[in-house]
UniProtKB/TrEMBL annotation:
Keywords: Glycosyltransferase, NAD, Nucleotidyltransferase, Transferase. This is UBC core domain-containing protein. Residues 277-287 have a biased composition (Basic and acidic residues). The keyword Transferase applies. Residues 590-600, 865-876 have a biased composition (Polar residues). GO terms for molecular function: NAD+ poly-ADP-ribosyltransferase activity; nucleotidyltransferase activity. The lineage of its organism: Eukaryota, Fungi, Dikarya, Ascomycota, Pezizomycotina. It comes from the Eukaryota. CDD domains: UBCc_UBE2Q. Residues 103-125, 277-297, 588-616, 865-936 are annotated as: Disordered. Residues 601-616 have a biased composition (Low complexity). Residues 1029-1198 form the UBC core domain. SUPFAM superfamilies: ADP-ribosylation, UBC-like.
Amino acid sequence: MPRKQFVADLQNARAGVSIAGISEVKQGDDDGMFTFMCLADGQQLRISALVTDVSEYPSSHMYMIFAPDHAPASVASTLSCIADHAFAKPIQQLMELVSRKLDSTDHDGDQQMLDSQDYDEMEEEDSDEEVDNFYLEDEPVPTKYAPTLGSLKPAEGYSKPTSAFRARIRSDLIVAKANGFKVGHCGGLMDGLSCFVSLSCRISKLGISEEAMQAWQVEPSEYLVVIFSYPNGYKSMDALKGYDMPTARRNFKMRIGIGTTYKPTMQEAFDAFTELSKEKEQRREEESQVDTQTPHKGFRSSFISRPLNGLLSERFPQLLKYRYNGMPWNGAEQFYHDHVGTSNHSDLGLGDQYLENEYISTNRYPSLVTSDHIQESMDQNHSLPLVGMQFVLRHFVRCCEFCLICFSKMPDDLQAIKPYVCDKPLCLYQYMSLGFGPSIEHEILSQPKVVDLLVSFCYSSARIGKLKDFPTGLSLMIPPSAAYGDDYQNLQQNYNGYYTTPAPPSAASTTGGSRDVAAVQMKYNAATKEIMFEDKNKRCPVRAGDWIIIRTNDNNSKAVHCRVTDTSLYPTISVAEPVTPASLADVVASPQQYPSRSRSTTTTTTTTTAPTPTVTALPLDEFKPAHFYLYDQNFDELQEHGKREAIYTLLDTLPSVAEMRQYLLRKKQSPLNSWVDRLPPAALGVLRWIIASNRACIMQVDEDATPIGRKGQDRLCGMPGWSQFRFAMGAPDKERRFITSVRETRKRLKLTYPTLFAWHGSPLQNWHSIIREGLHFKDTAHGRAFGHGVYHSLDCNTSIGYSGAHYGYGPTGTSWPMSELKISQALALNEIVNAPGEFVSKSPHLVVAQLDWIQTRYLFVKTGSDNPIGTSSTTEPKPFDPIEQDSGYTPRGTNGSIIIPKSAIPGSRRPKSNSFSVTKNKRQKTSGSTAFDPIDLDADDDGASIATLEEDLAIFREEDGDIRQPDQNDVGLPTPTSLKGKAKVGFLGGMFSKGPSTKPSKSLTDYVPGTLDYSTLPMLKQPTWATTQATKRLMKDFQDLLKVQNKELLHELGWHVDEDKIENMYQWIVELHSFDLTLPLAQDMKKKNIKSIVLELRFGKDYPMSPPFVRVIRPRFLGFQQGGGGHVTAGGAMCMQLLTNQGWMPTNSIESVLLQVRVAMSSLDPKPARLDNGGRQDYGVGEAVEAFIRACNVHGWAVPAGFKEMAYGGAEASASYY
């Protein structure tokens, strides 16, 4: 095995080497890493070497070799060259090569001679160049360390740090920065050595909804970070295009993650590309104690890092080749999907379907996410880091649009919150069985209470006999039914709504379909964890890695589950530490205590309630007669009764969710399946199925969340003592049908309140299917006195009576013993289409027969845990921004009427409001009489809270020390959205300049400032509702605008503000001029002798939380229906999402607003802007206001709160967004 070979070679080297100048070989901190002392340049240096992929050792592996920080530059350069020549060489030969190249000497002054047994044809060389030639061209004789390399191609050489090489790096990274990303690096980037480059951007810039950020466990202030690894020095796009796939993977790799800062540390970058071995994980766990409650800082994996890293490794280089054959990203991905594994995979005889550009709504994603450097750039010298970052954004921000196994587009048009896999059988199998795709580990780490909830519901459903869907097709191997003995005799029950009875097994088989298997007799030593067989001549009945159930003959009632670890000493074999299932017997013995897990070798057992540990006797060191059953029964062959039995017996072997979470926190790079001695694969498969089959996005609502924070505003007020779980979104297909029903009914009945809320109670065993399939009324559980349908009540106490309170914990309980929640009751608050007149009944219960009219929004559970996530306080924090409910159908909680926060409604339907993370020392947004979450007003640039380090700014400097500014070819042609959120090319120098710029003296425009007659304009007085906060911000923004205007050429700037004429900070007059003469708009202006477009910007009291109102005063434009364009409405208002709640950001500058308005007017898509040929007068503010509102309604944008008051200068009161 490759890993065993590597470990053996390293152990031999550690035991002692006879290489001149080499000593103290030690194992490193990461898998595949080792260090050694080397005498070089007259000093002892600790050299570090890393095998990038141990699974390729010793046939095709690569090394990354690093010198300490204080090493001479010549040593670092030489080591980089050695890494290229050490391809596929074992550890011994690598150290010989290092010794030779660095001219190391031993204590006697002798230099290293290569081993004559390995290189018997090698003659003594006199120069380093000849040694280079030998390792590059000659084929060494195979030894016990290295197989014949034969056809293996050496890795590409290191990059020589020429001036052109460094200029290309600067060009690539400056373009990336100009497109809105922060740039960082580690290692010898500019010296052509091994290095890491990172691009990042704040999460808040990506247009991700608040629900998605909560579900993905990211904060707006954090960064999405992409790390690019260059083991052999920086490679440009031109170089990568010339590589085949194996060479590309050796020279270029990518990893994505989330960071609290814009770049990872060197160690974090190493860790991102390193997989830990089992031995390394165990050693780290023993040597370090991790505080599992401390939030992770620095770089970490995201919830979909694993599938996206696989996509980048396996497909990205190939997709780039397709891109340069004329395909857009969607066409390249479709071509790959259609041709992967076929003989014509490289045949690029393309069909039209691969060449069509993908339509992406600019209303849904910001341009930072949708930009395409390859398509937009006029220069063919494309930036590889920028293209890679844009590809990552495509699949990170839009992850819900793609299957996370095959990455084909999902058919759903609903804006889902959680990514999933498509319906292809192979994708489902790989997700459920092999652990590909979305990470259940992320769910356990981020939502442990939700996982506990899902497992508890499944366990109850299986025990009561209600479970109907099963994890079939996953090839789960489980114990035969005979292995359980009497442990679960008659424990599976039937429920008829009022009481439970033992459920008989299937009539076809008393074993539920399990085959009859005889137990294997043997002797078992619990102290040494060994099994001894009587007849050594018989074949060993198990293999290493198999799981078995053991029972001793003197205590047949106690079963333990073990993994076979070693069979090499058969007839004696070794097993791992036994796992004792927490079955119902534990509950009967200790009704009030639920031990986390007992182990046969432990001396203490800690329970969840007992403060004093229980001392148990150590097992005797003796072999006792026993027998075992092998996990060799195929789950799919069982009948339903047997499948339910298998599910709850396997769940009994699981540790608690808290234990699994602690394991994952200790081993940050390891999935659950690496816990091989604790988790049976079948039990892990059932757990994965439980989590993965839930397509609803359920969020635990923590009681300790700050009341004014984002999470604190998710709590419903009026249900003290109950733990709350919020359904951010139901299953996508069910949610889509519900939304359609709401819209249709609202339109049909002209409803003011389109939905109402009501309670529904149901026993625990029903919730597994309710969460996945929704409510139905197929089974009659409590009678139907008021008709057929799903019963709801406005009083929670009525629904509590149906919630199964008498089917909870205790000797006859049916809940998962390892649950920390210990759920005894559950009831839901459902959102229902508000059409009581069409219900089956509306008194005394609401009976709804239309299943698509019902969607669960909150789940309330009564727990028996010591630390419930619901609060028991009678004084609950009230949400700042509650839902306005229909007064005739207001639900009541245990504390009177409930107050439901707006977060109960999915973001696609709730009134839009800017909502950001809680950050210290930031301003708070206010709207009317209610306060919302504090938000970060800092922009994501070098002046933000995390400044770019000097070491990263240095890479932009030219050879003479000046920082290069990009030319026009560094970015693509501007489009109406291509510069949104990005730095303007003309102003980029200001980001880096060391001093103030001097304004050029010559201007190339016929526009003359100061000629506009302000007496003809509708000037406003200072509004009475002006606020101090808004006034101060406007004055600052006005000063910033003037600074830009005073240092830029007039014709390059394209706009002008007459500072002497602005007397009201809430009304600015701006002239747009000097348009490109090739535009129809510029030609019309020339014909009419019009020098400028006069704009008016009006600001409200909530600025900068609310956007300004931007309209054209003169001249009049041709309307859309008359063939005009330029994003100017018939009333003169600008039709741009940027100026609505969806598109506006408080960090936007007025300079960027003017830039984007100008770009929008210059747009030729779908039609160019043209001037009206009539002689009509200026646009009036009234028609502009009405036109803006019409445009918002057409596009589904929310009109900013207080818009009319702002637009009319206080003449009309603010309109409600309802």
